[in-house]
Amino acid sequence: MGIRENVIETLERVKIAANGRDVTLIAATKMNDTAKVKEAISAGIEVCGENRVQELVAKKEENAYEGAGLHFIGHLQKNKVKYVVGEVDLIHSVDSVELMEVISKRAEKLSIVQDILIEINVADEDSKHGINSTNLDNILQAAGDMKGIKVRGLMSIPPISQKKGDNIVYFNEMRELFIDIGAKKYDNVIMDFLSMGMSGDFEDAISCGANLVRVGTAIFGARIY
Ligand SMILES: *Cc1c(COP(=O)(O)O)cnc(C)c1O
Predict the structure, then answer these.
(1) Among 2, 114, 146, 185, which has the minimal tally of Cβ within 10 Å of its Cβ?
(2) Does ligand 1 come within 6 angstroms of the Cβ of 25?
(3) What pTM value is reported for the model?
(4) Residue 185 CA to ligand 1 centre (angstroms)
């Protein structure tokens, strides 16, 4: 199947899983060129997620994301913050107070407020970025003093599912965290977005409360590294 058919089918699957809730399908565009990104947008994708700064800059120059929103979903290094802040609607992957501070400073310089999510390493994997949930209070307290950012929710990348249902335990853990934080009063924090679920498990993630899902392979086919 082509990208157009994949987008239509994936949007339909998202809609069914969402069961009337508002869920956004983010096309994870890494390693897919401008022509493919444009094809996905013309087929109905409303938000693209890029996870490498270099690709984001290059594709932006080619107007790849025209007609869609743009999120940054990959690991962000402090020295690359200037290429991302103000260029994307939402940064999903903030995983330290220091990174948040650099983003906030850059946004203040541009006189904007950058929306961000905090990335949680929900399965506590050594190979993954993201904070341990025990450090979440600390990072959310720190956000209260930062004028250039607004925390809009949480993101997680659990282990790759081997079979359907594998990640439900992590998705539920994320939902509980999301609800807990939402019930507490933190300055500068609103729990609007829960970003979790990829090609192998986005329907489970949606059932567990995700309202942003990041899907690459199911739209663009397997990536050749
Ligand atoms: C690549 C990527 C995805 C999409 O993964 P697929 O399994 O191809 O759907 C989602 N989130 C992030 C952060 C990614 O880098």
Answers:
(1) 185
(2) no
(3) 0.97
(4) 32
pLDDT in tens, 205-220: 999 999 999 999 999 9
Ligand 1 atom nearest the C-alpha of 73 is 13
The secondary structure of 63-82 as a DSSP string is TTTTTSEEEE-S---GGGGG
What's the pLDDT score for residue 223? 85
Residue that the structure tokens 């940064």 belong to: 91
Distance CA 108, CA 146 (A): 9
Please give the share of the chain, as a percent, with pLDDT higher than 70: 100
Measured in angstroms, how far is the CA atom of residue 102 from the centroid of ligand 1?
A: 25
Given pLDDT bands bounded at 50, 70 and 90, which one contains residue 224?
confident
3-state secondary structure of 125: coil
223: helix, strand or coil: coil
The number of the ligand 1 atom at minimal distance from the alpha carbon of 202 is 9
Element (H, E) at 28: strand 24-28
Burial track 140-171 (b if 16+ CB lie within 10 A, e otherwise): bebbeebebbbbbbbbbbbeebeeeebbbebb
CB-ligand 1 contact for 74 (6 Å cutoff): yes
Pocket test for ligand 1, best of 10, 198, 215 (most atoms within 8 A of CB): 198
Q: How far apart are CA 120 and CA 93, in angstroms?
A: 9
| Residue 135 CA to ligand 1 centre (angstroms) | 24
Cβ of 51 below 6 Å from ligand 1: yes
List, for residues 162-208, the tens digit of each pLDDT value: 888 889 999 999 999 999 999 998 999 999 999 999 999 999 999 99
